[in-house]
Each structure stands twice: as structure tokens, then as C-alpha cells.
Automatic annotation (TrEMBL):
This is Large ribosomal subunit protein bL21. InterPro entries: bL21-like (IPR028909), bL21-like_sf (IPR036164), Ribosomal_bL21 (IPR001787), Ribosomal_bL21_CS (IPR018258). It comes from Flavobacterium magnesitis. Pfam families: Ribosomal_L21p (PF00829). It comes from the Bacteria. Keywords: Ribonucleoprotein, Ribosomal protein, RNA-binding, rRNA-binding. Part of the 50S ribosomal subunit. Contacts protein L20. This protein binds to 23S rRNA in the presence of protein L20. Residues 116-140 are annotated as: Disordered. Belongs to the bacterial ribosomal protein bL21 family. One of its GO terms (cellular component) is ribosome.
């Protein structure tokens, strides 16, 4: 079972007991975190898509530690001009471990039926005919 979840503005494919580095979260180390913006859940071939998120689904995680990532060097140079700039930064990260993924349950089936009914209503609705503009004879 895996899920695609949005955490701190980025999307991650997560499964149970997976350790993930995400942008810094405000929670303390050792605390539990719940992410409600689950975009997709795959339960052994049974795929559920959200529009945009699945209602009732969540991903439970535990904050392991706060740390800084590797240094990223930004080097700018223009040849034959004597222009060189060297800059770098280290991103603040949080390491989390995924403890569980909960699906939507009964709401998931209801939303599929509602979506199927909505699409059949749209198909059965008559289409309006648009009148084409007539060309006027301007040549005399």
C-alpha cells in the first residue's frame, strides 16, 4: 500500500515505515503529524484518485529530527570578463517516518457513484446548436 501525499508544498510517494526528508516542519521532535492532503491511494491494485484530494484519507507520521541538508554551491561566471560569484546555502529539513496510511473507507465508494451519475447526466443533456454567422455579400 502506498499513497501520494502533499507535505509542505511538495508531493511525496510514501508507504508504511518509510523515512522521508521534507522541508522544515514546525512540530517538535518525537511528535506525531497527520497529513490530510492525500492525492492518491493504492491498496494492492485498488487505486483511488482524489479531485484534488481524497476526503477522509490521511497519512500519519512521526517527526524524528530536524537537520540541515548538504551544502548547495551556486557559482556564476562570465568568461573573459573577470566576473565570478560563489554562493551557497543549506536547506533546513525535517526527517519523518510514515507510521500509517488510512483510506477514505465508505466515502470513497459513494464519491465514485456520485461521479458516475454526474457524468451520465452530462452525456444525456442535449447540446445547444450554435447558429453560424452568415457571410454578407460585400462585393457589388
Amino acid at each position: 500500500m502506498y499513497a501520494i501525499v502533499e507535505i509542505a508544498g511538495q508531493q511525496f510517494k510514501v508507504s508504511k515505515d518509510l523515512k522521508v526528508y521534507v522541508h522544515r516542519l514546525s512540530n517538535e521532535e518525537g511528535s506525531k503529524v497527520s497529513f490530510d492532503k492525500v492525492l492518491l491511494v493504492d491498496d494492492n491494485g485498488n487505486v483511488t484518485l482524489g479531485a484534488p484530494a481524497i476526503e477522509g484519507a490521511s497519512v500519519e507520521a512521526k517527526v524524528l529530527q530536524h537537520l540541515k541538508g548538504d551544502k548547495v554551491i551556486v557559482f556564476k561566471k562570465k568568461r573573459r570578463k573577470g566576473y565570478k560569484k560563489r554562493n551557497g546555502h543549506r536547506q533546513y529539513l525535517t526527517q519523518i517516518v510514515i507510521e500509517g496510511i488510512t483510506g477514505a473507507g465508505a466515502k470513497k465508494a459513494a464519491t465514485k457513484k456520485a461521479a458516475a451519475e454526474a457524468t451520465t447526466e452530462e452525456v444525456e443533456a442535449p447540446k445547444k446548436k450554435v447558429a453560424k454567422a452568415k457571410k454578407e455579400d460585400t462585393q457589388e
